[in-house]
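Anyone? Bumping this.
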Amino acid sequence: MRKGAWVSTLGLHRQIGIEKGIKELKDMGIEEVYIIVVNSGGALYPSKVRPSLPQVGGKDLITPLVKEARKADLRVHAWIVSLNFHQEDFMKRNKYLYVVNKLGISCIEKPPYVDHYKWLCPSRPQVRENLVDTFLEIAERFDVDGLHFDYIRLPDIILPKGIRGRYPGVPKEEVLKPEFDYCYCNVCRSLFKEEKGLDPIAIPYDDPNYQIWFKWRADRITDIVRYVCKKVKLYDSSLEVSAAVFATPSLAYRYVFQDWPNWGLDLYNPMIYHKYYEKPVEWIGEAVKEGVRSGARISAGILIGFMESFEELYRGFKLALENGAVGITVFVYPPPRSELKDWVKKAFKELAKDTAS
Ligand SMILES: [Zn+2]
């Protein structure tokens, strides 16, 4: 059983301290950490590719953390926020690389849902190269076992059911709306026109060609993932490449254009955050089953803050493993409530006993 945790690098540095944080993770039974190296506001080290997060001021927050994790014999993955990027200077210089909706409006001018929803277009060669350079720079610079994609998708064309009520203008049902429908930048439009002879902006939602256009966009995400993964493996084939993806293959495709079973990665960490979908904890097992059936190796991403008791957390973990997950990835460390550390520790211990007997 793989026992992992997504780790907020800033949270660790600011709230806990590196040494204490790694000790706590170890004590929880965690054996591998996904530490955030580039977030949507910038790099947490002086990068030549992605500008630094302004509040970090060009300091390297990663090297000391990796060192401490290594000392504790943890496996380390670099967690990289990939296409969501809202660093001010970068956006000013590269506005043309950002996605445009079906109304012709750039996400820079009017981001969907929340202010930081500024997304790079996966069809642009400059975006692809920037992402490859980011991954390779991290692989060269830090002593990591793996590289981990996150936010590798278009903005949500449909939001998970449980959060639709939070934002104005979002329908309660699964209805497509042009203001949430990306990307119609001139590169996407002309590439599709060349291939299929249709301008996507003119395709109505009830036209069967819309599904072809939908798939075309999912394929652009697949292409960029495969391209980056190939370059990483050429650099060092022993690096494990993984991704935080939406909960199930069918939801991921319909909501955010992720056709993840076809990405060819080593490991997937689907974010099976049940309450966002208004589902009970038992759904974790069903979601894992759908992913495993697609042929993917899965470490189930579980949002422990949703768990109301130890029993519930344990049931979520157990159902994930019973349905074929190779492990659990806990979201997130530091956890929102202190008791969750004990619950995770106890759950891993019980599960180890279960599998031994
Ligand atoms: Zn585009």
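Late reply, but here is one note on the structure posted above: The two ends are 15 Å apart (CA to CA).
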